[in-house]
Write a structure and sequence with these properties.
2 domains; 5 helices; alpha+beta; elongated
């Protein structure tokens, strides 16, 4: 869900900035522009003197301006860091037989296998798997949704004994740290006659 919203917001912000920049550039270059154009000519300014000095003598003006600009900078930095942070592990380095060779395994493939193993476990109705970490040291986060007959202890024990152990061996890792979250399915009220 985050990626489509992110792309749409980026696209809209980019279009607005390109339109404003293009309007200012055309007016600054002296190109004749229509009367409805936001900037009329080379000597036009973004804010008139009256607009710039209207609130200057008010005591609340400068703290509000500084707070709003600081908030914009902090939100921009947060957004940038969120873009750089990768939620999923793209590939996993698997050492070859001789030790010098390495094979790259797609993280989504291992996630799919782990999810299938988890959903095949008795009592589990749905599973979500996410791989994180580094290419040489993956970590798994597994969310299990138990059905009405599911036992959390049994589901986690079976998953650790079969699915996680098999995944660890297949990527030839010494260990595969795994966090398992277990939730029970919500049961609706039963009708009593």
């Amino acid at each position: 869900m985050r990626n489509p919203v992110n792309r749409v917001l980026l696209g809209l912000l980019g279009l607005v900035l390109v339109a404003l920049g293009g309007a200012a550039l055309l007016a600054g270059l002296g190109v004749s522009v229509p009367s409805w154009w936001p900037f009329a000519g080379r000597d036009d300014v973004l804010l008139s003197t009256a607009d710039r000095t209207r609130w200057r003598d008010e005591g609340w003006w400068w703290p509000v301006v500084i707070a709003v600009l600081s908030l914009c900078v902090l939100l921009s930095l947060w957004w940038l860091l969120a873009q750089l942070h990768r939620k999923r592990l793209g590939t996993i380095r698997v050492p070859g037989e001789g030790g010098s060779e390495q094979v790259l395994l797609r993280g989504r493939a291992l996630e799919r296998v782990l999810r299938q193993e988890a959903e095949a476990t008795e009592g589990v109705s749905r599973a979500d798997v996410t791989l994180k970490g580094r290419e040489s040291e993956p970590r798994a986060r597994i969310s299990l949704l138990l059905g009405p007959s599911g036992s959390p202890a049994r589901a986690v024990a079976q998953l650790a004994g079969s699915g996680v152990a098999t995944a660890r061996e297949s990527v030839r890792a010494r260990r595969l740290p795994t966090v398992v979250r277990v939730r029970g399915a919500r049961r609706g009220a039963r009708r009593v006659d």
